[in-house]
Amino acid sequence: MAGNALVVGASGIVGSATAEVLLEQGWTVHGLSRRPTRQAGVVPVVADLQNRAGTAMALAELRPQAVFITTWLRQNSEAENIRVNGAMVRNLLDGLQAGGSTRHVALVTGLKHYLGPFEAYGKGTLPQTPFREDQGRLDVENFYYAQEDEVFAAAERDGFSWSVHRPHTVIGMAVGNAMNMGTTLAVYATLCRETGRPFRFPGSASQWNGLTDMTDAHLLARHLLWAATTPAARNQAFNVVNGDIFRWSWMWGRIARWFGLEPDGFDGSVKPLQEQMADDAPLWRVIAERDKLVELDLNRLSSPWHTDADLGRPIEVVTDMSKSRRLGFTDYQPTDDAFFELFARLKAERVIP
To answer: Which PANTHER family is this protein grouped with (predicted)?
Structure first.
């Protein structure tokens, strides 16, 4: 079944992958972002979701049956995250109300549902792993909860169904994304190869030795479409991960060897990427100009703060997918292959040399 879809955050990692999957399945896709998306086949819709009137105007002529919310704006505090990101979802759904066409809204959040927001990340009393969807909200303020509440309220008002999707760290292609571990590690490896610096794992002993999982952007996109078109999946929250588990002590070597590097084993000390890459912007510009890369600004490619938050966690993080499996979603993606496919695409598109 295909129809009209609106992808909100179309220029991001998840949004662009979702648009690709929808187009492959014959959907008409409108992509909303603050700047026009240039993705082939996607009809651009330009709007700033913080602007209520402007958003309503931009959406006035659209009649999507399915809406996929894959965006957020990082703020300086969780209170501001809640205020801004809650309002963005509210403005979006209020702007679509007049058209009356919306049948399903899918919201992408993440494992901070279980781990807490950045201000209290991985601290306090956390649910036992593997995380399962029936584990309730933490007793802390969290902008994911605010986004959910806006979707729930609009669904009750307007009569559409909803789904909430909680991926782990997402591997995918986008430039200028605030949370982009795959490209950050690719850039870091490139810099290490250029300078002869050791390819050092930046995180904690818990992440080096413990089990973890991740989420490929295209697998997440297929999950979003599945939930939007599967009656049994409506009005449900789901974890979404690749289906494999690994230890970074294994994965780090796999990534290093793809770039022709020797991995530097974990020596017991945390070496954040924010520190390791703090002075690398001028060097990256030299590399990019020399090799005719498409992006000279290191800050638009890498997000060391986010990679440090993930790889520095003091606890093991594993995610249960049984709920989706029982309802029929059986897609699987080996995480090392997801990294390698991303690295190959970054190279082919001249993002890395």
So the answer is: 3-OXO-DELTA(4,5)-STEROID 5-BETA-REDUCTASE (PTHR32487)
